[in-house]
Design goal:
Blueprint: H1 2-30, H2 54-71, H3 75-89, E1 98-102, H4 109-117, E2 123-127, H5 130-138, H6 146-161, H7 166-169, E3 180-181, E4 220-221, H8 222-231, E5 234-239, H9 249-253, E6 259-265, H10 268-278, H11 284-292, H12 300-320, E7 330-334, H13 335-340, H14 342-353, H15 359-369, H16 385-388, H17 398-407, H18 409-415, H19 423-427
Parallel strand pairs: 1-5, 1-6, 2-5, 6-7
Antiparallel strand pairs: 3-4
Helix pairs in contact: 1-2, 4-15, 5-6
The structure holds 2-acetamido-2-deoxy-beta-D-glucopyranose (5 copies).
Length: 442
C-alpha cells in the first residue's frame, strides 16, 4: 500500500515539474522584460489564475490533497519549496524583491517608507500611488463597492511592481498627455522619480513649478519612470489604502513577483489623536466630542473607527496565521517598536525582505531619529521618533481613549497595547502602554 502511494507521489512530483517548466516557458515568451524573475520564484510555480493550465492543475491539486490526506505527509513538497525560497531570499539567485508596506494613515508609514526609499540606487520606491485611484473612485460621483475597489488597488499595484504605469495612468487626473503628467501625487517623496534620468527639462522656467526638491525637473514622463523602474533591482511601494490583506493573494502569488508584505500598525488611540490634528476638518466631530466629553456610541464615526480597527486586525490575523500563500512573505511591525529601536527594526525588516541593509539607509535612519529639532509639516519624517511616539497621550482626552478601547479592544489586545483605566494613567509617562511582544519572524 505504502509503495503504491510512493509511486503515485513520484509521478505527481514529476508532473508538477513538467507543469512548472511549461508555465515558465510560456511566461518567458509573454513577458520578455521580466525574463529573469519567474525562474527565481520556484515557490509559486502553480499559477491558478492561468486559464490554459487550469484543468490539469486542478486535477493535480486534487490528487495531491488526496494523497497527503492519507499519508499525513502534507509538508513534503512545501518544505522543499521553502528551502528553495530560502536560497532565493538570500540573494543566491540575485532575485528582484517587491516590498509592499501596508499601513493606515498616521501610523508613521512615511517614515518607515523612507527606510526603503533611502536604500540607494538599486531601489525603485513609490509613495502612495493608490491615492489617485481612491480619489477618482470614491469621490461623490464614484460608485464602487469595496470589493471592486480592492480588486482595482491590487491590479494597479501588480502592474506597478512590473514597472507598468498604464493601469495607474487611467486614474491620474487630469489624464496624462503622451504619458507625461505634472500631477503625480507626492512625486518628490520618491527619490527614484527625481533622479537625473527621470527628470525632464523645465520649459517655462518662470511659471512652472519644479516637481522635485533635489533638482529642477519638469512634469513626470511616465515612460522614463517605467524605464528607471525596470533598471532597478528592487521595488517598494508604500500604501495606506489596502483594507484587507486577503485581497492581495493573487498579487502575492504572481510568479513574476517575489512579494514581501510588511504590515505596519500603531496604537489606535494614537492614530485617532494624530488624525484629529492632521485632518482637523474631517475629524471635527471627534473634536466636538473631545470638548463635550460625550460620545454617541452608535454614531457613524464610531462605526467607521471600529471598521478600520477590524480591518487592520483581520489583515494581521491572516498574516500571522501563516497561510501557505504568505509563508515567509509577511511581517508585522509596530510603529512604537520602530520608534524605540529604529536601527534594530530596520535591520529586521531588511533581513526579512532579503535585501542588504545599505549604508545609505543606515545613515538616513541615524540622522532622522536622533535630531532634537522639530521639523515642520504634518507629514514630516524628521522627528525624534521615540518622543514623538508618546506625544498622543497628552493630545487625547481620556473619554476618547476609552471609546477607542471599547471599539478597538480586540485589535489593541492582538498588538499588545495596554488599556488605561483613567486620565492619570493615560498621561503618566512612567507607565508604558506597550506590552513587549514578539510577532513571530517568518
Ligand atoms: C478553473 O477551474 C476551477 C475549478 O474547477 C473553475 O471553478 C474555474 O472556473 C476554472 N477557470 C477557468 C478560467 O477555466
Ligand atoms: C451604485 O450602483 C449600483 C448599481 O451599479 C446601484 O444599485 C446603487 O444604487 C448605486 N449607489 C449609489 C450610491 O449611487
Ligand atoms: C518621454 O520619454 C520617452 C523615452 O525617453 C520619449 O521617447 C518621449 O518622447 C518622452 N515624452 C515626451 C512627451 O517628451
Ligand atoms: C529623543 O527623545 C527621547 C524621549 O524623550 C529622549 O530620551 C532622547 O534623548 C531624545 N533624543 C535626542 C537625540 O534628542
Ligand atoms: C506614575 O506611575 C508611577 C508608577 O505606577 C507611580 O509611581 C507614580 O506615582 C505615578 N505618577 C503620578 C504623577 O501619578
Amino acid at each position: 500500500m505504502k509503495t503504491k502511494y510512493a509511486i503515485v507521489f513520484i509521478c505527481i512530483v514529476a508532473l508538477v515539474i513538467i507543469e512548472k517548466e511549461s508555465n515558465i516557458l510560456s511566461r518567458v515568451s509573454d513577458k520578455l522584460t521580466q525574463m529573469q524573475t519567474p525562474l527565481q520564484t520556484p515557490q509559486t510555480p502553480l499559477d491558478y489564475s492561468n486559464a490554459t493550465h487550469n484543468g490539469s492543475l486542478t486535477m493535480l491539486k486534487m490528487l495531491l490533497s488526496k494523497l497527503t490526506d492519507t499519508t499525513g505527509n502534507s509538508s513534503n513538497l512545501s518544505e522543499e519549496e521553502e528551502d528553495m525560497d530560502e536560497l532565493g531570499s538570500h540573494g543566491y539567485a540575485g532575485g528582484r524583491k517587491h516590498i509592499l508596506l501596508l499601513a493606515t494613515t498616521r501610523t508613521g508609514s512615511s517614515f518607515v517608507g523612507e527606510f526603503f526609499n533611502q536604500h540607494g540606487e538599486n531601489m525603485f520606491y513609490l509613495f502612495e500611488p493608490l491615492w489617485h485611484v481612491e480619489r477618482l473612485l470614491t469621490m461623490p460621483i464614484g460608485n464602487s463597492s469595496g470589493t471592486v475597489l480592492s480588486g482595482i488597488y491590487r491590479d494597479v499595484l501588480q502592474a506597478l511592481f512590473l514597472c507598468d504605469f498604464s493601469q495607474l495612468e487611467r486614474f491620474i487626473s487630469p489624464l496624462p498627455q503622451e504619458h507625461v503628467t505634472p500631477a503625480l501625487f507626492r512625486r518628490e517623496s520618491s527619490l527614484s522619480l527625481c533622479e537625473e534620468s527621470v527628470c525632464s527639462p523645465v520649459i517655462k522656467d518662470v511659471f512652472e513649478r519644479y516637481h522635485c526638491k533635489t533638482r529642477r525637473c519638469g512634469p513626470l514622463n511616465l515612460t522614463l519612470a517605467s524605464e528607471s523602474c525596470l533598471s532597478k533591482q528592487h521595488h517598494a511601494i508604500k500604501t495606506v489604502r489596502v483594507r484587507q490583506l486577503e485581497t492581495l493573494q493573487p498579487l502575492v502569488e504572481d510568479p513574476r513577483l517575489d512579494v514581501r508584505v510588511i504590515q505596519l500598525v500603531r496604537d489606535p488611540r494614537a492614530i485617532l489623536a494624530s488624525r484629529m490634528v492632521a485632518f482637523s476638518d474631517k475629524y471635527q466631530t471627534w473634536k466636538t466630542w473631545a470638548q463635550d466629553g460625550q460620545v454617541p456610541e452608535d454614531d457613524e464615526e464610531v462605526k467607521r473607527l471600529k471598521g478600520n480597527c477590524d480591518n487592520i486586525r483581520m489583515s494581521a490575523e491572516v498574516g500571522l496565521s501563516r497561510p501557505s500563500w504568505l509563508r515567509r512573505r509577511y511581517m508585522l511591525v509596530r510603529y512604537e517598536d520602530i520608534a524605540r529601536y529604529p536601527m534594530q527594526k530596520a535591520e529586521e525588516m531588511y533581513r526579512f525582505t532579503g535585501i542588504p541593509f545599505s549604508p545609505q539607509a543606515r545613515d538616513w535612519i541615524l540622522k532622522n531619529t536622533q535630531t532634537t529639532q522639530e521639523a515642520s509639516g504634518i507629514y514630516s519624517t524628521q522627528k525624534n521618533s521615540s518622543e514623538q511616539a508618546e506625544k498622543w497621550r497628552f493630545n487625547i482626552p481620556f473619554t476618547l481613549a476609552q471609546v477607542v478601547q471599547r471599539v478597538c479592544g480586540p485589535t489593541m489586545k492582538l498588538f499588545g497595547y495596554k488599556f488605561v483605566d483613567d486620565e492619570k494613567m493615560l498621561i503618566n509617562k512612567s507607565i508604558s502602554l506597550l506590552e513587549e511582544k514578539v510577532f513571530r519572524l517568518p
